[in-house]
Design a protein that fits this description.
With about 120 residues, this protein is mainly alpha-helical. The protein folds into 2 domains: about 70 residues, Arc Repressor Mutant, subunit A, CATH 1.10.10; about 45 residues. About 60% of the residues lie in helices and about 5% in strands. The chain has 5 helices and 2 strands, in the order αααββαα. The protein has a two-stranded antiparallel sheet with strand order 1-2. β1 and β2 form a beta hairpin. α1 crosses α3 and α2 crosses α3. The radius of gyration is 17 Å and the shape is elongated. The relative contact order is 0.11. The mean pLDDT is about 95. InterPro entries: Tscrpt_reg_HTH_GntR, WH-like_DNA-bd_sf, WH_DNA-bd_sf. This is GntR family transcriptional regulator. Pfam families: GntR (PF00392). Keywords: DNA-binding, Transcription, Transcription regulation.
Length: about 120
């Protein structure tokens, strides 16, 4: 995983976990990687992963079953989508709108590129 300098690593790892959940790779109510295993996979300090897991627990996206491990909550997908949509609308969309306005890009052009992106990256 390539980390960016403009955002805390634990938040970037949380986004990675959220993506796994949204794509169905880590289904609801299923056990996820241990702190140690995810730290090894991402080549980060286990304390960073623990901070990520605490952050996701506070958002009720994952839960800890003492002695067993961490599990995806039943409503994780809805919670992630709600949180990510709000973040997208406040942080990323205004910059996106500014760019398409300045470059005079039409909604039709955006739609065509979006459809191509979905087809190439998320085949059913």
């Amino acid at each position: 995983m390539e980390f960016r300098d403009n955002e805390a690593i634990y938040i970037q790892i949380a986004n990675y976990v959220n993506e796994k959940i949204l794509l169905g790779k880590w289904p609801a109510e299923q056990k996820i990687l241990s702190v140690r295993d995810l730290a090894v996979e991402l080549q980060v300090n286990p304390n960073t992963v623990m901070r990520t897991y605490e952050f996701l627990q506070n958002q009720d996206i994952i839960s800890n079953k003492r002695g067993i491990g961490f599990f995806v909550t039943a409503d994780a997908v809805n919670k992630i989508q709600t949180y990510q949509k709000e973040r997208f609308f406040k942080q990323e969309l205004p910059e996106f709108f500014r760019t398409i306005y300045l470059l005079n890009i039409s909604i039709e052009e955006i739609d065509a590129h979006y459809k191509t992106f979905k087809t190439e990256n998320y085949k059913p």
